[in-house]
Design brief:
The complex is a heterodimer of chains A (113) and B (111). Chain A is mainly β. Chain A has strands at 5-7, 10-13, 19-24, 31-37, 44-50, 53-56, 65-68, 75-79, 88-95, 103-104, 108-112. Chain B has 111 residues and is an all-beta fold. The chains are: A mainly beta (113), B mainly beta (111).
């Protein structure tokens, strides 16, 4: 089966610009996660969707980050405006049901200059 | 709150050496425990998991046993290969709660 797809793989922007990342989960997976992984650290959950509803966004910086999953399949994560400290890898993962094994995409590496 | 603590790296081993990467956790109830591996430039891949006390997860020669009495889930492999060079993450999850990842342990295996 196809894995989790993410695009773009790399993005370089200047601070205060906006950027968007796209994720297509494994077919049939109801739960979708966005993580931020700063260099040398473990992934940190930003937001979790169950179908098209938000389950947990407690660690999402809502003044600049937003995410949606309109039809319960693909998802988009946006940062506006970006800050230097947003430089990280943004990982998307999906699972059949909440808290079961998560399958990760390759990630989008963001560099904010 | 829930958390995972991993031994700090980096770890450098010669090929065919024995590997142990320590992981301890703090959680109420009965979490599921996972080891994920991240190869350079790639996303995380599930390596193995255990869902209850005394369960042993295994895959590709790696093993880890869920020890509730010591709240540990140490990763072991009897003979590492160069291709095992990667970053290894311990993680836990509980029903109704989010995944918690450790900070990762970088492993380099030299020929």
């Amino acid at each position: 089966e196809a894995g989790v797809a993410q695009s773009p793989r790399y993005k370089i922007i200047e601070k205060r610009q906006s950027v968007a990342f796209w994720c297509n989960p494994i077919s049939g997976h109801a739960t979708l996660y966005w993580y931020q992984q700063i260099l040398g650290q473990g992934p940190k959950l930003l937001i979790q969707f169950q179908n098209n509803g938000v389950v947990d966004d407690s660690q999402l910086p809502k003044d600049r980050f937003s995410a949606e999953r309109l039809k319960g399949v693909d998802s988009t994560l946006k940062i506006q405006p970006a800050k230097l400290e947003d430089s990280a890898v943004y990982l998307c993962a999906s699972s059949l049901v909440t808290q079961e094994t998560q399958y990760f995409g390759p990630g989008t590496r963001l560099l904010v200059l | 709150g829930d958390s995972v603590t991993q031994m700090e790296g980096p770890v450098t081993l010669s090929e065919e050496a024995f590997l142990t990467i320590n992981c301890t956790y703090t959680a109420t109830g009965y979490p599921s425990l996972f080891w994920y591996v991240q190869y350079p430039g790639e996303g995380l891949q599930l390596l193995l998991k255990a869902t209850k006390a005394d369960d042993k997860g295994s895959n590709k020669g790696f093993e880890a046993t869920y020890r509730k009495e010591t709240t540990s889930f140490h990763l072991e492999k009897g003979s590492v290969q160069v291709s095992d060079s990667a970053v290894y993450f311990c993680a836990l999850s509980r029903i109704g709660n989010q995944f918690y990842f450790g900070t990762g342990t970088s492993l380099t295996v030299i020929p």
